[in-house]
Write a structure and sequence with these properties.
It is built from four helices and two strands; from the N terminus they run αβαβαα. The chain is mainly alpha-helical and 122 residues long. Helix 2 crosses helix 3. 9% of the residues are buried.
Length: 122
C-alpha cells in the first residue's frame, strides 16, 4: 500500500516496527495499529499476552486460519480460544472468510472447499 522506499524509511525511523510475539511482553502499544499474523499458531498464553498490550488510541488486527494450525497435538490455539471468549464483546469484531474470499489462483478456492467437505465427513 506504500512505496517500498517509504516503508524502508518508516522501518528505519521506527514508525513501523516488526517484532516477534516474544518481544511484546511488558509493552503497552499506544497510538498504534498492531497486526498479528498467523495467529492460529499462538498458544492461549501468548494470545492473552498479546491482547493485553492494547494501549490508548490503538487498534489490533489479528489474522489467522484455524485450518492451518501447526501447534503440538493437544495444544489449543489461542486464536480459537480468543474467538470463543471474545465473541459478543462490544467493540470487538470477528470476520470470517470462506473459500469464496480467496484471491489466489481460482483452483485454491476449490481445493479449500474439498478439504472442508472432507473434514466434515470425519
Amino acid at each position: 500500500m506504500m512505496q517500498p522506499e517509504k516503508v524502508e524509511r518508516y522501518i528505519e525511523s521506527g514508525i513501523i516496527e516488526i517484532a516477534p510475539l516474544a518481544f511484546m511482553r511488558g509493552r503497552t502499544l499506544a497510538n498504534s495499529v498492531i497486526i498479528l499474523d498467523e495467529a492460529q499458531n499462538t498458544t492461549s498464553v501468548q494470545m492473552k499476552m498479546f491482547l493485553t498490550r492494547l494501549g490508548e488510541n490503538s487498534k489490533i488486527i489479528i489474522a489467522g486460519d484455524p485450518s492451518q494450525i501447526d501447534l503440538m497435538k493437544g495444544q489449543k490455539s489461542g486464536l480459537i480460544e480468543a474467538i470463543d471468549l471474545l465473541a459478543g464483546i462490544k467493540n470487538i469484531s470477528i470476520k470470517r472468510f470462506s473459500a469464496k474470499d480467496i484471491v489466489r489462483h481460482s483452483l485454491v478456492g476449490k481445493i479449500v472447499e474439498a478439504y472442508q467437505k472432507n473434514s466434515k465427513q470425519d
